[in-house]
Amino acid sequence: xxxxxxxxxxxxxxxxxxxxxxxxxxxxxxxxxxxxxxxxxxxxxxxxxxxxxxxxxxxxxxxxxxxxxxxxxxxxxxxxxxxxxxxxxxxxxxxxxxxxxxxxxxxxxxxxxxxxxxxxxxxxxxxxxxxxxxxxxxxxxxxxxxxxxxxxxxxxxxxxxxxxxxxxxxxxxxxxxxxxxxxxxxxxxxxxxxxxxxxxxxxxxxxxxxxxxxxxxxxxxxxxxxxxxxxxxxxxxxxxxxxxxxxxxxxxxxxxxxxxxxxxxxxxxxxxxxxxxxxxxxxxxxxxxxxxxxxxxxxxxxxxxx
Length: 306
What we know:
By secondary structure, the protein is an alpha/beta fold. It folds into two domains: 6-45 and 105-304, TIM Barrel, CATH 3.20.20; 48-104, Alpha-Beta Plaits. The protein is built from ten helices and 13 strands. The strands form three sheets. It has a nine-stranded mixed β-sheet. It has a two-stranded antiparallel ribbon with strand order 3-6. A two-stranded antiparallel ribbon has the order 4-5. Helix 2 (111-119) packs parallel to helix 4. It is globular. It starts with 5 loop residues before the first strand and ends with a strand.
């Protein structure tokens, strides 16, 4: 029996992950390594300790809690964590009075228990036309028996289910969720496969194949494009993307998501060095130009943001 997936966040009252008011479940673990990722804690399939050392008051409460001798004082008297020794057990988290320690990722409850918890927000879903969104990391690479059971229960209860995916996932997993998913929020980064491999670590061929499969299956798809300078914000890159989408899907809704730096501090809290590539958000004027260009290419329903 497969182990239960890890969840690193359940966000209620979300308005950016599909229509209406939604509750979004963020599963931990992703096959991509996007160089600009603003949720680096979502990538690993294992729990990870996050420490905001800038807020630490060096009270030493965490030292006694650590069974691995991974926490000690440095020469300046500051409390530091040795990542090589840390096993992310989370024992130190409960002893931190300043809440500067956090464990990213905990085992999900059973699918039935999670569904019950999500259904507690049914009133907000019904009044707003919202529902539940499964996100990540990448939700489609989690235990498919678990996901199917969760989606079936929500579907049978009349809850709108959205799948937020990068598309790099087994076709069989997609096929099993098709009967229960009302909307597929589908990420496309860049059409040039060489560039895609460089900035995400994987080829985009399986992603494009799965997108075409969803379209053939009659699924409702919304394309989401993280717009990152200088990766994919050129007119050439966007024209290629527009041609691909119209060829494979037709004219779905397309949302352009401007790059932002709000997750930069998470790398430091994870003890990870961020990538060295320099990314920045395109200007508002450039975003407007890209919207108009995509409309001219036949994608008539184009917007900014989720």
